[in-house]
Amino acid sequence: MGSARRMIAVARTEFIHVIRDWRSLFLAIAIPMVLILLFGYALTLDLKNVPTVIWDQSRTPESRDLISLFDGSPYFSIKAYADGYDSLQRDIDAGTAMVALVIPGDFAEKIRAGRTVAVQVIVDGSDATTSRLAASYTNSLGMIYNRNIRSVSRSPGASGTVELVPRVWYNADMRSQNMILPGIVAIVMMVIAAMLTSVTVAREWETGTMEQLISTPIRGHELIFGKVIPYFVIGMVDVAIAVAMGEWLFHVPLRGSPALLFAMAALFLTGALFLGMTLSITLKSQVLANQIALVAGFLPTLILSGFVFAIENMPVLLQGLTYIVPARYFIAIMRGIYMKGIGLEILWLNALLLFIYAAVLILAANRRLKLRLE
Amino acid sequence: MLTRLKRMLVKEFLQMLRDPRMRIVVFGLPVMQMMVMAFALTTDVTRVRIAVLDRDRTPVSRELLSTFTGGGYFQIIRRVDAMDEMTRLLDDGTVRAGLRIPAGFAGDIRTGRIAQVQLIADGTDSNTTAIILGYANGIVTDFNARLNRHLPDRAAPVEMAVRAWFNPNQESRLYYVPALIGLMLLIFSLLLTSIGIVREKEIGTIEQVMVTPIRKMEFILGKTIPYVITGYISMTIMFILAVVVFGVRIHGSILLLYGLTGIYLCGNLGLALLVSASASTQQQALLTAFFIIMPCVLLSGFMFPVHNMPAVVQYVTWINPMRWYLEILRGVVMKGVGLQTLWPAVVAQLALAVGFLFLASKRFRKTLR
User: Fold this and answer.
1) Does B296 touch chain A (CB under 8 A)?
2) Both B118 and B221 in a single domain?
3) Which sign does the torsion angle of CA B296, B299, B303, B305 carry?
4) Which domains can be identified in chain A, with CATH numbers?
5) Predicted model pTM
6) Whether B9 and B79 share a structural domain
7) How far is B185 from chain A (nearest CA, A)?
8) Which residues in chain B touch residue A66, judged by CB atoms under 8 angstroms apart?
9) Which one of A235, B20, B63, B304 is most buried, counting C-beta atoms within 10 A?
10) Per the structure, how many domains does chain B have?
């Protein structure tokens, strides 16, 4: 009984500490909201309006047909018409254009004569993601153009053709928001949880108040759990904010069970909190603990979790490394619940691994904390 | 004045690098991060895992499948007999896409009709999905061309000959590796400096500094110069790695790069001073620094292209030092251009750095409140 009382006392002090420091509290709530707003409104990998420059040497109705395809496409936005390689190169060098289309002078003649004509497409490879997508859309426009020509003169005696009917499941209009929002919850919790708790115990050591704590009858686990509780509350509030913003602001469909979502978030949050705690206890320095939390918690969550960069595209060795990044399992769970509407019957292994991760860190934090002076 | 500054610098360096763990944080972590992230940050999509439901089972359908796997873009990891199984594989993420060939596929082709093939793609990763659909379209177009190769007039009239400048194979690594240097410099200079100063406030040693005859400017310089120097050192290490390990070639002038990096670092340190002037605990400093770092990184064009953002947000990126630095990095390293092309970015960067430092010197007080 006394144990719970002491734990609550620690939680109360930490709560007071957090609330009195209104700025930290404000930031702990504001950072997730800013992140979600940014991702919801400003940040998208969906390609559109790629600045394009065109050098039309043909200037015929045929070449204008091709240009109008680019003009009408949402993916390209024609910024300028060039009259030579020099001006074209200047635009690409300066970054005012990322795609250049060079239509040769004999474009119309060759098409009328039924010969193949090559249109040169120059893409700015310094941004490989955009350039690869742009190249693929350029090819599609080329195919559309070819189909338009052919439909005019369909040759008899041709054998049948194959038509690809693509269907995109779980995210029919391929909105990147639908994929980002479930992932952002993981990012937010890592930032708030691991980074905030990483300074808590180290602060007591640095400012000397640890000695006062040691002289009280408090035990290690009471101190740890007491300190974690306020941050757990903040973290769950952040999750609720993220889910609410996804629902009402960005209309990201939540197909699975909200209860399961919050339960899984709590599990991941616990792991993240105790990661920060363990670092804080082990390193006893706020700068160090925080830097390590950044490097061991936040950056892998951002980079190695499949949040933006698909894990299966990484080199095999690195794919192996992602197995020790808990956010990998959490993001799979979140996307499963949000987009696929599946539950524990498929996600149980991910959930189990998250549970193990949280348990290991709780044990680690408790074992590392020694309430003794050195 | 110089002696005081020199003493302060010696003290700062000692304090920063006394702790061996801190030495690792300052020099080791950026390098380690770069190694991991450079390999992870890739949007090159290859060997997409697919499941196949072939209800036709004819030589023609098999030929289509071998066209799919032939280019190395797709790998068939499962052949299924029923749609249920396909659904399950997509649900649990075993495969990224499923290809469904209906019965009568070969018959349709033989009789000159249009045969449909269904590609079901997992849209949870929308960017990869767009690329996968592009690949599949290309493959089917090739397949059609081969089916009809006996007809001379069916050769594709227009052919798009795509060439990627600055990065012929369009490897994302060549772009991300230099950009990572910009990211690391921002994170480390902002976080370490601001926390370093606030630390003195929190544990009370700033009062000892105050009673010494050191002036405000000397204190600021003494606190920031070590981080400019360590910033340069870790930048050099990262560039050596970029060149040796990742095969990045610096096409432009290295001297220019170092000069412009100095402006970037000074601007970041100005920001760090602003943060530390307003924070009284390390926790606050850390959160505030993070509050600045996150939008800077996300709105820099590092992962998300600036031209994709709404117009208003594009203007907001003008006050983002990392955005300009990435433009400079990309320009010098990949395109090999110089000041005559990069001057707008350089001017913006310079204006920001001067602005941040000016604000910092206004806000920063050596005296007690």
Assistant:
1) no
2) no
3) negative
4) 7-43+175-368 (no CATH), 50-152 (3.40.1710.10)
5) 0.77
6) no
7) 14
8) 158
9) A235
10) 2
